[in-house]
Amino acid sequence: MLQALSLGAVLYGLWLLLSGHYQPLLLGLGVASTVVVVLIARRMDLIDREGHPVHLSGRFLLYIPWLLWEIVKANIDIARVIVRPKMAIGPTVLRLKGTQKSELGHVIYANSITLTPGTVTIGLEEGVLSVHALTREAAEGLISGDMDRRVTAVEGAADGRGEHGA
Amino acid sequence: MALLADIASWACLIAGSLFAFIGAVGIIRLPDVFARMHGAGILDTLGMGLILAGLMIHEGFTLVTVKLVLIVVFIFFASPTTTHALARAALNGGVEPVVDGKNAPAAETSERTGGPSKT
């Protein structure tokens, strides 16, 4: 129910921002279409903790600035590697164990790795990630496990029920 | 004030274009499929982000800026997904990642066997 309400609020907010119309008739039509969409999503069983993880939002918002800063640093590193006449690359494939408990946590971790230039997740099976790293430094950054710990913290201790991978 | 915003906006646009250019050079220069994805990674994070940030500064606090922010959010969700799909397609197609100059067949045997897709 919480998920349905928050999905409705998010959809309506999105509709308002994208439309930019504030006449009563159009606002009413927006409410009507939001309700229809939420009902359809409910019938399709799309509204669950995995599909609309509202319980993560607060901690996730704290994680985003850290991730953005990591992305900026990694971008500069990789850009520097690319523009050097002699590219000092050392591609490796690593296997990492994600310590997250849910599949959603693993997906957040895998996507964070991919978003950071220099590391791309090429496989995710049973919580074990195969990561292609372009340089030694990028690989070492991942092995240190900082990102893994932070994603696990986003997931939180309370998130034990519902969807489970491992 | 308007001048300041203009300068900031142009600085972002130029820096973003520079990163996009470096990303494109990377796609050409890097040796194999998997390495080239890292070049594309520069394009769709800092290249895209700085160009859109420049446009946001240019627009100021308007609905257009909100839409630009939404574009950034959607790209940040979509781009790792497509990169992952590309990597999986390459692995399933039998492309071996080049590791320090040689192929590493042991590194991706379990990806080949498939299993349920997790994303």
Average pLDDT metric of chain B: 82
Please tally the β strands of chain A and state the result.
3
Main beta sheet of chain A, described? 3 strands, antiparallel
Helix content of chain B: over 70%
Largest sheet entry of chain B: 2 strands, antiparallel
Question: Which descriptors apply to this entry?
Answer:
heterodimer; A: 166 residues; mainly alpha; 2 domains; 3-stranded antiparallel sheet; 6 helices; 3 strands; disordered C terminus; B: 119 residues; two-stranded antiparallel ribbon; 4 helices; elongated
Description:
The complex is a heterodimer of chains A (166) and B (119). With 166 residues, chain A is mainly α. Chain A has two domains: 2-43; 57-155, no CATH class. Chain A is 58% helix and 11% strand. Chain A contains six helices and three strands; from the N terminus they run αααβαββαα. A three-stranded antiparallel beta sheet of chain A has the order 1-3-2. In chain A, helix 1 (2-19) packs across helix 2 (24-43), helix 3 runs antiparallel to helix 6 and helix 4 (103-115) packs across helix 6 (146-155). Chain A is elongated. Residues 159-166 of chain A have low confidence and may be disordered. Chain B is mainly alpha-helical and 119 residues long. Chain B has one domain (2-112). Chain B is built from four helices and two strands; from the N terminus they run H-H-H-E-E-H. In chain B, strand 1 and strand 2 form a beta hairpin. In chain B, helix 1 runs antiparallel to helix 2 and helix 2 (33-59) runs antiparallel to helix 3 (63-92). Classes of the chains: A mainly alpha (166), B mainly alpha (119). The A-B interface holds A 14, 17-18, 20, 71-72, 75, 78-79, 82-83, 87, 89-93, 95, 103, 106-107, 110-111, 114-125, 130, 132, 134, 165 and B 19, 22-23, 25-26, 29-32, 34-35, 37-39, 41-42, 45-46, 63, 66-67, 70, 76-77, 79-81, 83-84, 87-88, 90-91, 97-100, 104, 107-108, 110-111, 115, 118-119.
